[in-house]
Amino acid sequence: MHLSERAFCGELAPADTGREVVVAGWVDAFRDHGGLMFVHLRDGSGIIQLVFSPEETPRHICERAAALRSEYCIAVRGEVRRRRPGTENPGIRTGTVEVMATELEVLSESEALPFTVSEKGMVAGAASTETGHVTEDLRLQYRYLDIRRPSMHDNLVLRHRIFQTVRRVLDSKGYVEVETPMLTASTPEGARDYLVPSRLHQQSFYALPQSPQLFKQLLMIGGMERYYQLARCFRDEDLRPNRQPEFTQLDIEASFIDEEYLYELVEELVVEMFAVGGISLTRPFPRITYAEAVDSTGSDRPDLRFGLRFVDVTDLFDETDYSIFRRIILRGGCIKGLNLKGQSDRLSKNVLQNEYAKEIAPSFGAKGMTWMRAENGALESNIVQFFNERELQGLRERFEVADGDVLIMIADPAYDVVTSALGRLRLHLADRLGLIPADSFCPVWVTDFPLFDATDEGSVTSSHHPFTAPDRTDFDPNNVEELLTLRSRAYDLVMNGEELGGGSIRISDREVQQKIFAALGLTDDDVRERFGFFLRAFDFGPPPHGGLALGMDRTVSMILQTPSIREVIAFPKNRSAACPLTGAPASVKREQLAELGLLDLGGREVPPDAAEREDRVDRISWLSRIGVAPEEHPAMEIVLDQAEELALLAAKEAGELEPMYSVVPVVNRTRPGTVGKRSESAETGDLLKNAPSLKGDYFKVAGILE
Ligand code: ASP
């Protein structure tokens, strides 16, 4: 059968009726009706039903078909037929046709599968044939089988379409895709670096890029003006759900632009990307400042799919007799709350007091939680008697209370505790009460971030990264209090409570950049050593510039509405940052470490028994650069044992003699007068038959043997 004639399974249609086709792919499922066989054949384009009928298919082909098993790889020739009415399968795109087989070739067989690959029922209306729960690690271990599943396959295809959209839109706007190095120096994005030891420069390391930040800025100084890259980035962070040690970011940078330009560009891009998933977003995206976002939702990643905005009621209790509130207000604290409209049926006193006030709110960092339910025109709770009528009336007005509403409030001397605990309650309650509408997408730009965050040690760190432009430049880099009042020209794009990406207008003035480094506590030497090359570029006419990066795995996962980002990555790491397929990360041999100069880093030794724990044969094979096949191991073991015995014997004979060292450099010598003789095994090639590779008539071996 000529595979070059092959038609795609998923593309066969009634218009092909009567056509003879060759199709190839995997056996997705089969049904044997006592001689009449139906097979779902799956390829990259979809599924087609094959029929092996004793009346029309040659007998020996029917017999061969009866031996087919799931995931055998086969090629079939046959005629496209319309299915008989009543036997159509609306569950597959080609459900009105089938192929009556006349030839069958088994291209390769498959062992029994670790999990079911098939997802499509063979009979109209039947559920998917997928059964049972498969652990994610098993799916990742056999990812190639997992990718055969149509839903995983579709995820990767749609991811590709989204990437193509990005490239098309950016190309149309004059953006140039430039690759930046993977082996580079550290870029500060707030995570740990993955380091790569250099063999040629012993005890020196490359860092895998946390982002192409420095390079993209250098490209602006290099006059590229419009840059983008679908860049792989690496961040060694503590394990968190929906994070990957390596991820793909759409990295953008442009010169002679401002925030408005970037909002416009990115909104257009994001609208087009979401359209690939059939989701339409309305523009312009709303904007909210960081301060407003935290004040009204308790988060700098506000989920705007539902209301539940915070209401501040601190001033209502200025003169309260309720001692808890009074003390909090005296200490400069605040009181904020939410109105859960019409939820009193679902939030009983018991739930509010015993679950929320006692358990959930404290687990979110609050010291307590006040609740009230509106019934018969009045507010009732376990503490309502401590408030006067003016205070209660104030609450009713501020929260626009109606019967059936439930108020919850958090009071604390620390503003951050109030906003963060109430923010988490907001999300928890919205989820529990089903207040989040399905299939809704609410993008928002968060702007005006603080430039710096305070550290526990009384210093500051960049809240975005140190290249972000501040809102003013006349600050004193040593005045921490003043530094904490600075805002940045950074912006984040948030959707449904998740940060899809962020960026900033950059510092394009050397002096200002140096001031920021000083504010971060970097000494002149640190700066010179880490960023000297970068600052130097600012001596040569840097243009004003800015950009942003969008997390593509997260964005694609949101567009496709998958439960985790791992569903849209071909070969992701699992939740513990490991790869069940390849076994990475894995230990390496002592020799490999030695070659990289990593055995003695600052006096640290590899444990003395490390070498013993390794396989002797592997070790020698690695040292000599000659591969030893597993079946050769036992013979090699015997040879090694004999060599060891011999060595011991020789040592015994030599008594306590010190070993001899040669003082002249080692060179190859032949004794004068001797005639070179070709060994027979050299003639036959046996001598070096384990050499790693051949080049023409020569064996290529490691330097050690040359
Ligand atoms: N380099 C930044 C990041 O990876 C994005 C940017 O500022 O453009 O978060």
Strand content: 15-25%
* Nearest-integer average pLDDT: 92
Q: Specify the helix fraction band.
A: 25-40%
The ligands found in this model are: aspartic acid
Stretches with pLDDT under 50, minimum 5 residues: none
Q: How is the main sheet built? A: 8 strands, mixed
What is the CATH-assigned architecture of the domain at 153-285 and 552-568? 2-Layer Sandwich
Query: How is the largest sheet built, in terms of strand order?
Result: 6-9-10-22-21-20-17-11
Task: Describe, in plain words, how this protein is organized in 3D.
With 706 residues, the protein is an alpha+beta fold. Among the domains are: 106 residues, Nucleic acid-binding proteins (OB fold (Dihydrolipoamide Acetyltransferase, E2P)), CATH 2.40.50.140; 150 residues, BirA Bifunctional Protein, domain 2 (2-Layer Sandwich), CATH 3.30.930.10; 105 residues, BirA Bifunctional Protein, domain 2, CATH 3.30.930.10; 127 residues, 2-Layer Sandwich (Gyrase A, domain 2), CATH 3.30.1360. The protein has 19 helices and 24 strands. The strands form six sheets. An eight-stranded mixed sheet has the order 6-9-10-22-21-20-17-11, sandwiched between helices. α4 runs antiparallel to α6, α7 packs across α11 and α13 runs antiparallel to α14. The longest helix is centred in the N-terminal third of the chain and has 23 residues. It is globular and about 110 Å long. 29% of the residues are buried. The structure holds aspartic acid. Aspartic acid (ASP) binds next to β21 and β22.
